[in-house]
Amino acid sequence: MSDPAKPREIVVISGKGGTGKTSVTASFAVLAAGRAVLADCDVDAADLHLVLSPRIVTRAEFKSGYGAVIRSEACTGCGTCAELCRFGAVRPSERVSGARQVYAVDPAACEGCGVCVRFCPAGAIAFSERVSGEWMVSETRCGPMVHARLHAAAENSGKLVSVVRNEARRVAEERQLPLIISDGPPGIGCPVISSVTGADGVLAVTEPTVSGEHDLARVMQLTRHFGVPTFVCVNKWDLNPDAAGRIERAAERAGARLVGRIRYDRGVTDAQRQAKAVVETDTPAAADVRSLWKKVETD
User: Minimal CA–CA distance to 210: which of 175, 250, 173?
Assistant: First the structure.
């Protein structure tokens, strides 16, 4: 038996938060009708689960970077580590070992540089790999979903995004599903780069505002740099038709394909309150999202 064809991967992104990216992704998940693996790559502030209500099947720790841990029983209380730490992460501990004041490391402040480990005269500091978050494979009413949660103050969200994408691809190939739909992070930073590189297409959701215009221009610059085909959708376009038109003309000049507009509709908020995708309701904006999906799916 031959290997299944490589699944097509579509990533929904935006230059900023709050443009409707996750609402569009959730509707695409419903419209894919079980033919897609869903991936929430917004690991810093994941929220696709709020609409799709996943049931976790498997979960695994995400380890990234190293952190210092002082063994209080071996600490002599000399204070060398506190003197050398440039990040203020080493502080006197509330614990006392014998008659000595010992020290402890605040894991949220530790940058994992290893200086304290190198220069501790008693060799009392361990330097172990950190558990920075977790990733999960779940089942939803729309099919399998891979998502993750980065711990507070943890770094390497881009690396965790790569884990989510790789696992989504594995699930798609294992179940012979032809599509991966990813809810990407906002902005243009490391997590976004990790989300879009190597993808088959990006849908950039923007809004008719000055910031929306500016942020879309940055997104377009990013996707051009990585050579990823880009679609553009203006959400709430009717709040400022002139700005919507200006954004669309700029997107076309930048090489993007316009695939639709979504009207402003209070029913979208009502759907969110019910933990439903927009297309699972009969609100007017649902028709706009269905039209958008047909163009993105068939391109």
Answer: 250
State the amino acid at position 137 in one-letter form. Answer: V
Work out the angle between the directed axes of helices 21-31 and 266-273 (0-180°, nearest 10).
70
DSSP annotation of 3 reads: P
CB-based burial label for 282 (10 Å; 0-12, 13-18, 19+): exposed
Radius of gyration of the CA atoms of the chain, in A: 23
Q: Do 181 and 29 touch, CB atoms closer than 8 A?
A: yes
Does 273 map to a domain? yes
Exposure string over 135-151, b if 16+ CB within 10 A, otherwise e: bbbbebebbbbbbbbbe
58 in any annotated domain: no
Residue 69: give its domain's CATH number.
3.30.70.20
As beta bridge partners, residue 90 has 105
Owning domain of residue 76: 64-131
* pLDDT, tens only, 257-281: 999 999 999 999 999 999 999 999 9
Q: What number is the average pLDDT over the span 17-22?
A: 91
SS3 at position 110: coil
Structure pTM?
0.88
CA–CA distance, 24 with 200 (Å, rounded to integer): 18
Residue 58 pairs in a beta bridge with 137
